[in-house]
Design brief:
Layout: E1 3-4, E2 10-17, E3 21-28, E4 39-40, H1 57-60
C-alpha cells in the first residue's frame, strides 16, 4: 500500500510484467529509511465541467489540493 503525499518519496511508473503485460509499479525517488511509509502523489488532475477538481472528498479536503489545476 502506498499513501498520498504532495512531497512523495516514490512515484508510479509503468513496468512490463512478463505475464500481465504493462502494469503500474512503484519506484522510490529518494532513499527511504527502514519503517518509513511509502508515499506517491496520486496525480488527481482532471478538471470537471464546473471547473472543479475531480477527486475523492478525502483528497479535496487535504491542504494544498486547491492548488491543483491552477
Amino acid at each position: 500500500k502506498v499513501n498520498h503525499s504532495f512531497t512523495p518519496n516514490a512515484q508510479y511508473e509503468p513496468y512490463n510484467h512478463p505475464r500481465f503485460g504493462e502494469i503500474k509499479c512503484i519506484r522510490c525517488i529518494r532513499d527511504v529509511r527502514a519503517g518509513e511509509e511509502l508515499t506517491c502523489h496520486y496525480d488527481y488532475n482532471e478538471i470537471g465541467d464546473d471547473g472543479r477538481l475531480v477527486a475523492p472528498d478525502w483528497f479535496l479536503a487535504l491542504p494544498g489540493s486547491d492548488k491543483i489545476g491552477r
